[in-house]
Design brief:
40% of the residues lie in helices and 14% in strands. It has 10 helices and 9 strands.
Length: 275
């Protein structure tokens, strides 16, 4: 954001030591996402928020993948929490929306003047739709999470046997599984698998019958996408490689369908891709 006079330092957010090393005299904000898109990195909320407070830095957390029923960053000391309400808060593919949570003081003194001067306002109808979605949020979020863990457990042996990668904070194989369980009530609907090559990834996508292909994750149905050619295509090959967004990576938003139907669809799609 140089045109706004803002300098940024990009770090590996899963490396606790990197946070303190990156602090500069003019550092004002820590901004991060956990779980992160699409590699499902987990950031140590308690450590990073405490470090920020010790240095007078505001912590802003993107909590879109977990939603407020599965993870509450302000309980760990976060100052501001941002949501894509399109995702799990609406969660039924109906609206585009966002939400910001913070202290009354921050909302009044920082957010409201910005909103008045720049105009980002949700329509009344979309706000109503999101509010209706909140009525079933807890039930949906937990069912999404249960299905995601079950599907992940089904996929992991196949993916591992094919020299692929499983990126799922709900499974013990994730390097920060214990931390994810500590700071989340459940690990959410989203995980990723790396099947090695773009050819295999596209073959798997083409073979899907129940699961839809979409880079959206704001729906009750299961969706899958290829981040390198969609959500992260504009970053360039080198930047994607640095982030771990490989050509064989597929991101899955596990929906509310019967888990037997989801495993059956993935079973035949993996076979079609030679996995």
């Amino acid at each position: 954001m140089p045109r706004f006079g803002i300098e940024t330092t990009v770090i590996d957010s899963a490396d606790n030591a990197a946070w303190e090393a990156a602090i500069r005299p003019n550092t004002k904000v820590f901004f991060f996402e956990t779980p992160a898109n699409p590699t499902l990195d987990i950031v140590d909320l308690e450590f990073v928020c405490a470090l920020a407070k010790a240095h007078g830095i505001t912590t802003v957390v993107d909590n879109a993948f977990a939603g407020p029923t599965l993870q509450r960053p302000m309980e760990f000391g976060a100052d501001v929490v941002a949501y894509s309400a399109t995702k799990i808060m609406d969660g039924q593919g109906r609206v585009l929306a966002g939400a910001i949570c913070a202290s009354e003081e921050w909302i009044t003194e920082v957010l409201m003047p910005f909103q008045r001067n720049t105009g980002p306002t949700l329509s009344a109808f979309n706000a109503w739709v999101v509010m209706k979605g909140l009525e079933t949020l807890d039930l949906r979020a937990r069912r999404h999470s249960e299905n995601a863990v079950a599907l992940g457990e089904f996929l992991e042996p196949r993916v591992s046997a094919a020299d692929g990668r499983m990126l799922h904070p709900g499974l013990a194989s994730h390097p920060r599984h214990d931390m994810a369980v500590k700071q989340m009530d459940a690990t959410g609907p989203i995980f990723a698998i790396d099947v090695g090559t773009r050819v295999k990834a596209f073959a798997l996508l083409d073979a899907l019958q129940l699961i839809d292909i979409s880079n959206n994750i704001g729906d009750a149905k299961s969706l899958m996408c290829h981040p390198a050619s969609t959500t992260h295509a504009n970053l360039g090959e080198e930047a994607r490689a640095e982030m771990g967004v490989t050509e064989g990576l597929l991101r899955i938003n596990v929906g509310l369908e019967d888990i037997a139907d989801l495993t059956e669809d993935m079973d035949q799609a993996l076979a079609a891709a030679g996995i």
